[in-house]
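Quiz preparation item.
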């Protein structure tokens, strides 16, 4: 999709039927918050359907809930093709709630956009601007700290600094105890 010449999508397709979705960036930040919350899967699904589907254009929910969730997740990631990308553990580097101040100040400083006062911005436009923030923006530095691998650093002082920064800016681990235990079991299984 070319956001400069193609119409920005305002629907998802489920079983060849188009369902209108709300497209403001605030909706999709809330989608992200719900998806990363510890609430039950059933509650997540119902909250997301109510949040994202445009009730003015969708009089009924699609029948295939799982396909609808797949379509909504596709909209969230802009239906980008992830083929060939690392399929290993995906580390979260951004939390829209925890990082909101950094995101706000970066948009204001770089683009002159006050995210608190604009009435609307399409999710795809917001993400394009977010992905294009300059390296010197604090949020970009923080994201790099979250992704860094201090153990690969040769210099002991820099390795210590990177560990401190990674820990300082770490996002909360929202996995359940069972998920954490399963990950440890998988690591141990792979090690032997």
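Solution:
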């Amino acid at each position: 999709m070319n956001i400069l010449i193609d119409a920005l999508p305002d629907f998802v397709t489920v079983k060849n039927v188009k369902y209108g979705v709300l497209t403001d960036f605030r909706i999709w930040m809330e989608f992200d918050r719900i998806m990363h919350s510890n609430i039950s899967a059933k509650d997540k699904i119902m909250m997301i359907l109510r949040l994202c589907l445009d009730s003015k254009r969708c009089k009924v929910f699609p029948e295939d809930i799982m396909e609808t969730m797949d379509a909504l997740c596709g909209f969230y990631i802009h239906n980008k093709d992830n083929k060939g990308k690392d399929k290993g553990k995906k580390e979260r580097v951004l939390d829209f709630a925890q990082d909101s101040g950094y995101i706000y100040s970066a948009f204001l400083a770089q683009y002159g956009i006050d995210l608190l006062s604009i009435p609307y911005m399409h999710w795809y436009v917001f993400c394009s601007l977010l992905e294009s923030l300059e390296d010197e923006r604090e949020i970009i530095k923080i994201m790099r700290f979250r992704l860094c691998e201090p153990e690969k650093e040769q210099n002991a002082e820099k390795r210590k600094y990177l560990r401190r920064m990674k820990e300082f800016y770490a996002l909360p681990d929202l996995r359940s105890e069972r998920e954490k235990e399963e990950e440890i079991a998988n690591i141990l299984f792979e090690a032997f």
